[in-house]
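Final paragraph of the annual report: two paired records, presented back to back.
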Amino acid sequence: MSQMGIHNKLLAFLTAGLAGLIMALGLRLFLPFFEPIAWAIILALFFYPVYRWLRRVLRGSGGLASLGMCLLIIAFIIIPVFVLLGSLTSEVIRVYTEVQDNLQAGNFTIVPNKQRFPILNKTVSHTLDALKTHEGKVKEALIDLSKKTGEFFLRQGTVVFKNVANIIFDAALMIVTLYYLFRDGEQMLQTFKDLLPLPRQDVERFAGLTSDVLSATLYGNLLTTFIQAGLGIFILWVLGFSAPLLWGMLMGLASFVPMLGTSIVWIPATLYLFVTGFYLKGAILLIYSILIISQIDYFLRPYFISGKTQLHALFLFFSILGGLRVFGFLGFVLGPILIALCVSILELYKVNFLGRAPQGS
């Protein structure tokens, strides 16, 4: 190899290394603001169809439409979410305090009263015997679990109150980012497409697949989850449940559990009402849950994901668990989005390199 060839290769290597270092340092500047930027991207993806409609109404005024969308999101998303989180924290603390007081005072019994609930008393007693334990051990375990759970939420609440200024600052950054994502999002996306080392046809195919998977994920899964949670909160509030917000939110989270879904919450709640003698309330909750809450999975979800590449329920479930563990609350939405991007890449590989027809075609 000639001296000139070695020199050119060394120069190319140093240039690539320097470019990589500069890019890494540039990205490092954005890491402290990862959460507000990520939330802004998620909200922009979720509400971009609304933005396009608003821009058409305003006859192409992108800046005005972007400002209007930011104001709408502040009024109908950010402020309600802060109020919701405050109410949810209060309910969690109240439930924790009540459970702790009842457990410590001995007012809480695992085995139901034999005279009032003979069948249930016999069933629970036999279950405890089969598990080779007794009521005292179960109560000790519940006291320990409730204590740890309460301490966890109290720590989280303390962290939130200590960082109110940071939260407000991040919210402001998110709104600013969101404004520019709405206004210049299409140009940013086109710039990103131009940087991909793929033929134009493959880039457009990848963009189309990603759009389908994200649409199915954001609207077919996350939006229907929020709707189910809202319906759960409403019926539990109407029926006079303690902490309806907490149990309704748990119902929404349970919708991601494969096979069981929201029934993890409403079946025990219905049984509780029947066992405690509230037969009419139990019947209302059962009928409402079967005919309304559960039907979201059969009618609304398929409407959003019809004909689109979608995530398998098992992948979606673990993407949420993994996202919550890695990113915190942000991972509830970011986890499924990242897996959706992985699915898009795999679909592109299947079509281009394996020569197979795309899913749903």
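The closing record of the year follows.
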Amino acid sequence: MLSDAAPLALLAAGLTFVILIGAIDLSVQSVASLSSVIAALLVPRFGPIGFLAAIAGGLAAGLFSGLTYVTLRVPSFIATLASSGVVTGVALYISNAATVTIDERSRVYFDWINGSILGVPGYIIVTAAILAICAIVQNYTPFGRYSLAIGSGEAAAWAAGVRVGRQKVYALVVSGLLAAIVGVILAGRQLSGSPTLANELLLPSIAAVLVGGTAITGGVGGIGRTLIGALIVSVLRIGMTFLGINIFAQQIVFGAFLILAVGLTIDPEKLPFVK
């Protein structure tokens, strides 16, 4: 269950920062897939520098989404949906629309993902460390507090002197960063990168955030709740797999699950301001 929940929890953690401000990021699965392709292409050639390039790709995608959202003043779902298309196009182009396999000689670079410490896989340890950092950032830094303030009332945050536009860009950059890390982890686990590698993770990751109790309208929630939501969603995913439910049918279940979660967590008073 932890093996299944680790990448999902990281992806959902990035989404949490975005949803807390009352926005949404529909590009995370594309960013993760692009990161996996970059890692699979560059790590065999340049070693650990390839990981930095993959992370940089996620940061650039998040920055692009954030600037599009804030500068053009378009709703976040449109900005990030457009970014998703751009990112997917880049991934398809650099991979020639094919899976990029990591050769055996280069797999040693991914030992920090596939190796283990006291029987615990490396990527689970890395995920736990990153989630701990995210929890600290969300609870004990101005960025975390400002995110909650913006989600609770953007006008009031402006009046209090919070640079709302900057905080929104930061949230989407963090989401892109964590999505890129997920892509690297998936590339290490699969020993390959693909422009569609993380396509099935968008609905489960959003569901994990909302099931954990973070309201889609923002201002309520946190990383700890998202972790619980990710574990719940993972149990559901594993259960459906054991029951032999087709992976495409699972998306139907997650879609219905998402509708239910939104209905239970939404704040009707702030619904007109969701963007």
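Residues 2-273 form a domain with the ABC transporter involved in vitamin B12 uptake, BtuC fold (CATH 1.10.3470). This concludes the annual technical report; the extension proposal builds directly on these records.
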